[in-house]
Amino acid sequence: MASERTEMLQRDDIQALILRAYTERRHTVYIFLEIGDPAEFRMWLTRAMPHVTTGDQRPEEHGGELHGCAFNIAFTRHGLRKLAVEPDGVDNYDGFGLEFKEGLVNPQRSRFLGDVGPSDPSLWEWGGPAGNRSEARIDCLCLIFGKDGGVPNAWATLQPDPQAASVRHVKEGYLAKDGKEHFGFKDGISQPIIRFTKRDYDTTLPRDRALHVVEAGEFILGYENQNFVMPVSPAVNARRDPRNRLGPLVRRVRWGRNQQVGNLKDFGRNGTYLVLRQIRQYVGRFRQFALDAAGADAHAQQLLQARMVGRWHSGAPLTEHPDKDPYPGGAPESLNNFRFDPLDRSAFRCPAGAHIRRANPRDATSEIDGQAHALERVGFHRLIRRGRLYGPPVPNAPQDNAALDAVDRGLMFLCLNTDIRRQFEFVQQTWITNTKFSGLIDESDPLVGQGGCFTVQRPEGNERVHNLPPFVTVVGGGYFFMPGIQALHCLADA
Amino acid sequence: MKHGILTILAPIIQDREDQVRDRLLLLQDGGLPTAPLIGLHFASLSVIKDSEKTHYLRPHVLFDANFDGTREDFIDALVTHGGPWLDTVFQDCEGYPDAGTELAQVVKNYLLAHDAGADCVYIAYPFRTVGQIQHEHRLRNEVARLDAINRFGLPHDALAPPRQRSLVARIRTQIAEIPALQGALTLPERPFVTTYGPLLGDFALRLIAGLLVIGAIPFAIPNLENYAGNAGVAVTTVILMVVSILIGLTAVWRPGWQRWSVIPLIAAVLSVFTARNDNVQQFLAATDRGVSMIARLVVAPVVVGLVLAVIAWLILVQIHESWRDPDPPLPSWDPDEERSLRGRERHDAQNLLIGLNAIKPGFLNLRLRLWILGVFNLSFRLMTVRFVLWTIHFVKYLTKSGRLAGISSIHFARWVIVNHGRHVLFISHYDGDWDAYLGDFVEQAKKPLTAIWSNCVGFPRSWFLFFGGAGDQRAFKAYARRSQHRTLWVHRAYPDLAVSDIENHTAIREALGSSLDAAGLEALLRRL
C-alpha cells in the first residue's frame, strides 16, 4: 500500500537531489560552465544524460561508470536561452518567476536580501554582476557527489569538450563527518518531509506531521502546493519539443476541468528552482565575540552561542534543553520534533530572534502576533536545504582568532523550492534580515544577519547583547533551474 | 480623537496627465506646511486611470489622507496653510479655480465635493493621535535608556522581583522629571471598539450559537409516544438526539466550535423526515392556539426568506461567474512595471498599496443598463461588493484578534467604490514587504478577499463568491500587481514604526501609569 502511494511522484523523472541529501557521499564539486556552441553542448548533454541521478535509483546503480558518484545538473536563465528555451515566456505565457528571470544579482534584490556592504555582488568570487572580476557568464551548474576520490574521476568521465562548454569556476565542498558546520553547530537538521515520499508514509518515524509534512508542489513543479493548486510551471512552444517528450501544459479552469493552454508544453514538470549562495564564515570573529560578550567562562560562551543559534552545538534545541547541552559527545536522532508553543511561548528558552526561530518559526508566531494557524502559514515558506561546507575545516588545536579568519571557509548554501519569491526570498527578507521580526526592535539574525544587537528574553526582563559584528558575508550566488529528466532530454534535442 | 479620512478624486484636464505626474513626482515632503501636518498620519498622491473601453476612467488625481479630527477641520487647515501646495497639486484639474486658494471657500467646497469617502475603513489604532504615537515612541526610548542605565553593573540574573519593583519605581520618578514627557504616566484613552471588540464579537457569536441550540432543543426531543412497540428505534433516536444536543451545548462555550451549534438543528430537521417526530406539527398547532402567531407568520418567513435569498444570490453570482466571463488571463507580470513599483517600495518599514479594479458588469451590458436605469448603476455585482464591504466595515473589530482579518501589519486601509460604481479603489498603508503583506492576506483572509475582488474583472476564478480566487497565491499577487498604481508622493508621520511597535509603546505607557503586580512588572520589563 505504502509503496503504491509513493508512486504519486514520478521519481524516474525527478533529479535525485530534490529527494535525497546524499549524506553518504560527503564530497562534492560544484562546476560552473559557460556554454560554447549550443549544438556541441547538446551533444554533450545527450552523452551525460544517462549519468544524471534520478529519484528512483541509487547512484551505485549507474554501474560504476561514474565511480559511484551522483550527478545533477541545473541551468541559469542565460543557459536556458542559449538552448532555445526563452525565460521570458512564450506566446504570452509567463512561466518562469520574475526572480529567476532577473537573477540573484539585481540592485533591488541585493538590497532586500541584505547583499550589501561586504556582501555586495560586485565583490563576489563568482556570479557577480557584469563588469566585475567575477563576471564570467554562468550558464550551467554541474553537481557531483561522491565518496572519497570518486569525484575527480567522475568529472573526468563527464567533462565536456572546450567547444561545447568551458569551465568558468570550480568549487569543492564536503560534509563534515560529525555533520557540523564551521561555527561548530550541527547543521541541516530541520528539513521538511515531502508529501508522497517514503518518509511521509513511514509510520515508524516519531514525528509531528503538521510540523514537517509539506505538499510536494512546494518543492517539485507539477504537483499541488500548500494552496492545493499547481505551481506555475515554465513552458515551451510545441515546436521546441519535436520528439514530443513533454506533456501538454494544462491549467484548471471552471468546474475543475483541465484545459490545455495554447500550443504549449509543460517544461517545468518534475523540475525545481535551485538557489546557491556561497557564504563565507568568520569563525574567529564568532569565537572572539563570545569571549568578549560572555567572558572567559566556557559554559557562558557556549550558552551565548547556543542562544544565537537556538540549538546547542550538538543540535539539541534550547526549547527542550535550556540549561546545558544534553549530548556533548554527539546527539542521537530526532532533534527536530519540538514546537515553540506552549513550552517556549515567551521565548525564555530559545530567544525570539535566534537563528532557528527566524529561519523556521514553526508555531512561534502564534503567541507574538496573536495569530492562529501559525503553523499553516509557515508551511508556505519552507525550503529543502542541501548545503555543504567549503574551505579547510577549523583545526582542533586552539588557534589565534585572527588567524582563523584569514582562511576562506564557509557554507555552500543550496536550497530547492518552486517559488523563489515566496520561499527563499521570503525567508531571507521577512524572517532572517527583518529588523522587526516577531516584535523585536532593530535587530537581524544574530548568526547570518548584518550584526548589531541581539535580545535575549528573560523572565527578569530583556537582556541585550550589543555590537555584534557580521559573522558571515556572501561571496557568490545564483538562481538556477533544475529540470526534470524529460525536460533535460528536450533541452538536448536539437 | 476620532480619525478622519479623505479620498479626493479630481479629474485631470485632457492631455495634461503627464504634466501632472511630473509635477507630483517633484513634490517633496517639506513642501507641505507643518500646520495641517500635525495631525496627519498618512497621505499620498497618485494619478489613477483605466483606459479599458468597457470601464473607462479618465485620469484623476487621487489625494488620500488619514488624519486626526474631522475632514472639514483638516481641509480648513490645509487651505489656510498649504495654499501653494494645493495649487501645485490640483491646478490642472477640471473645475479647480484658476485663482487657486485665494478663493479659499471655493477650494474648500471643491475638495469636499470631490471627496469619495469610503465604503469600508479599517484603522489599526483608532483614536490614537499622531502626537500620542510620537510621544509614546519617545517614552519607550527613554524608558529603555533608563532601564539600561539603572541596571548597569548589575548581574542580569540578580534582577529579582523586589529589585524589579525598585527599578520600575526609579524609572517612573525619572520619567516624571523629564519635561518633554509630560503626561507620560497618565493612562491613554482606550477606545471601546478595539478594547472590547473581540469580546463583543465572541459574545455575539456565542449568543447566536446559544439561540440556535436552545431553539432547536424542543424540536430535537423526540416524542416517545410515537415509538410505542419499537424500543430499538426509540433508544437509538434518543441517544442520537442527546449526543447532538450535547455537541450543540459544548459548541456554545468551546472556543472555535461555534459553527457546530447547528448540529441539533440539523438533527431536528432530519428527525422530522426520518423518524416519527411530530414536534414541528405540534409546534405549529400550538402556535395556532397561542401568542406565537407572530413567530409563525412573521419571524419564520423572514428568517427562511433571508436564508433562501442568500443562497439564491450566491447561485446567481456563480452562474454569472461561469456564464459571462472568459477565464481570467494566466498570471503574468510586466517586468518593467514590477521593477518600477518595487523600486519605490521600502523594504523594512511602511509601504503603500493603491489598487484600482473594475467591477464586472452584471448580466446586462453597460450601455443597456445605463439606458434602462439612467445614471444609477445597479449591477448586481456592484450590490454584492457593496454588501460585502459594508459587512466587513461593521464586523472588522469583532474578530478574535481585533484586527482586520487577523492581519497585524495594516495601519490604515480602505475600500472605496468610485466612478459611478464601476471601480473598487483599495488604499492600504501597511508594514514591511509587499509580498509578505499580500501573502498574509491570502493565508489569513482568502474568503473575504475573494468575496470582494471576485466581483472584479480579471480576478482568478472563484466559486460561489467565497471559494477559489485568492487561494491561488501567485495568480492573486499578479492580479494585485496589475491593478496597482504608482504612488507619486507620500507622507508618513512616523515612518519607522510598525503597528506592533505602536501597540507595544502604548502598552508600556499603560503599564508605567498603573500599579503592577509581579507578573505585570516582568511583562513591562520584557517589553523594553
Q: How would you sum up this structure, described in words?
A:
The complex is a heterodimer of chains A (494) and B (528). Chain A folds into 2 domains: 2-234 and 479-492, no CATH class; 283-381 and 429-472, no CATH class. Chain A contains 16 helices and 16 strands. Chain A has helices at 2-6, 38-48, 77-82, 98-102, 107-113, 150-158, 198-201, 209-212, 283-294, 298-309, 355-359, 365-368, 374-378, 401-406, 421-432, 485-492, and strands at residues 27-35, 70-75, 140-146, 165-174, 193-194, 213-214, 235-237, 248-252, 258-266, 272-281, 384-385, 388-390, 410-417, 452-456, 463-468, 472-482. In chain A, the strands form 5 sheets. In chain A, strands 10, 11, 12, 13 and 16 form a 5-stranded antiparallel β-sheet that branches. A 4-stranded antiparallel β-sheet of chain A has the order 2-3-1-4. Chain A is globular, with a radius of gyration of 23 Å. Chain B has helices at residues 17-26, 34-37, 71-81, 83-90, 104-113, 130-151, 161-176, 192-220, 231-253, 263-274, 279-289, 293-323, 335-343, 366-373, 380-395, 434-453, 473-482, 499-513, 518-527; strands spanning 3-11, 40-50, 57-68, 120-123, 350-358, 410-418, 423-431, 462-463, 467-468, 487-492. Chain B has a 4-stranded antiparallel β-sheet with strand order 1-3-2-10, covered by helices on one side. In chain B, strands 4-6-7-5 form a 4-stranded antiparallel β-sheet. In chain B, a hairpin with a 3-residue loop joins β8 and β9 (467-468). The longest helix of chain B has 31 residues, at 293-323. Chain B is globular. Chains A and B meet through α4, α5 and α15 of A and α13, α16, α18 and α19 of B.
Quickly list its features.
heterodimer; A: 494 residues; alpha+beta; 2 domains; 5-stranded antiparallel β-sheet; 16 helices; globular; B: 528 residues; Alpha-Beta Plaits; 4 domains; 4-stranded antiparallel β-sheet; 19 helices
